[in-house]
């Protein structure tokens, strides 16, 4: 049960992160092709179209729903995004049109200004920081009061970031120790709601900072890649390839960590 609760927490964090990208992208009129919770192949997906309830996708097959009766007006809007659930809950993605290569449309991500792109790519991390802070602040405020809680929350988050930095350094040096799934399950048995909130906050902040690392395919990699793209004559192609390569490397790393975690 403890392990299930951990995955529920992770699932919520991923949804909030990707929602940040989705909402800010749509505000800036960028076409989001796929909003996926989880990596890998499609398990379930849905699109909403003006004049019909939508298209339901199951695996590689799909069928259409048509509106009926009083429900027709409820779905009188158009959204070309596919909202998808995929099986590998190690993260998620918000695939946008023209992310690294232009398709010639004004709805491409690359067609937007640097500031617009920056807001879109950092929106997920921003949501993680805000929700993580509020979760921990709520618990601390219930113990020490609203006035003292702000400073104590910042001190706690400072410890979270320090442990994250130490963990990354140990991972690079090959000295990192991974808490296995069974150990985590035992640790999470009989935890109360407040402890789960703190865990949610710490994990949300941790994943937020991890995504800020200046690595291609992570959110923190895009701002400097866009600058390089403008400075180099083949910048668009190089950036596109870099993101593909580092995405594969990150997926391999995640599967290695998952293998040791499930031991």
How many strand elements? Answer: 6
Question: Unreliable segments (pLDDT under 50, ≥5 consecutive)?
Answer: 63-77
SSE-based structural type: alpha+beta
Strands ordered across the widest β-sheet: 4-3-2-5-1-6
Helix content: 55-70%
- Main sheet summary: 6 strands, mixed
Shape: globular
Secondary-structure element pattern, one letter each:
HEEEEEEHHHHHH
Determine the number of helices (DSSP H or I, runs of at least 4 residues): 7
What's the alpha carbon Rg, rounded to whole Å? 20 Å
Mean pLDDT: 78
Distance between the termini: 18 Å
* Beta content: 15-25%
Question: What's a quick, concise take on this entry?
Answer:
This protein is of the alpha+beta class. The chain is built from seven helices and six strands.
Structure description:
A six-stranded mixed sheet has the order 4-3-2-5-1-6, covered by helices on one side. The radius of gyration is 20 Å and the shape is globular. Residues 63-77 have low confidence and may be disordered. It has helices at 2-27, 114-144, 146-173, 181-187, 193-211, 222-231, 235-261; strands at 32-39, 44-49, 52-58, 61-65, 79-85, 88-96. The two termini are 18 Å apart. The chain is built from seven helices and six strands, in the order αββββββαααααα. The chain has a domain at 111-261. It has 263 residues and is of the alpha+beta class. Strand 3 and strand 4 form a beta hairpin.
């Amino acid at each position: 049960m403890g392990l299930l609760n951990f995955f529920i927490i992770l699932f919520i964090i991923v949804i909030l992160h990707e929602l940040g990208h989705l909402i800010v992208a749509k505000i800036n009129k960028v076409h989001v092709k796929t909003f996926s919770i989880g990596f890998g192949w499609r398990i379930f997906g849905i699109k909403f179209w003006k004049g019909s309830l939508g298209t339901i996708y199951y695996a590689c097959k799909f069928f259409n729903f048509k509106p009926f009766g009083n429900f027709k007006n409820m779905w009188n809007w158009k959204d070309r995004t596919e909202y998808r659930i995929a099986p590998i809950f190690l993260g998620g993605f918000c695939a946008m049109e023209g992310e690294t290569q232009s398709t010639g449309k004004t709805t491409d991500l690359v067609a937007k200004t640097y500031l617009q792109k920056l807001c879109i790519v950092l929106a997920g991390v921003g949501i993680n920081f805000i929700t993580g802070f509020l979760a921990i602040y709520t618990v601390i405020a219930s113990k020490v009061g609203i006035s003292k809680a702000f400073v104590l929350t910042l001190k706690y988050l400072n410890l979270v970031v320090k442990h994250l930095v130490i963990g990354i350094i140990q991972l690079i040096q090959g000295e990192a120790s991974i808490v296995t799934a069974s150990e985590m399950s035992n640790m999470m048995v009989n935890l109360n709601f407040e402890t789960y909130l703190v865990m949610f906050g710490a994990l949300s902040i941790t994943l937020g900072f991890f995504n800020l690392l200046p690595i291609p395919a992570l959110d923190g990699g895009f701002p400097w890649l866009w600058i390089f793209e403008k400075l180099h004559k083949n910048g668009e192609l190089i950036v596109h390839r870099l993101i593909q390569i580092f995405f594969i490397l990150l997926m391999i790393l995640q599967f290695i960590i998952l293998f040791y975690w499930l031991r």
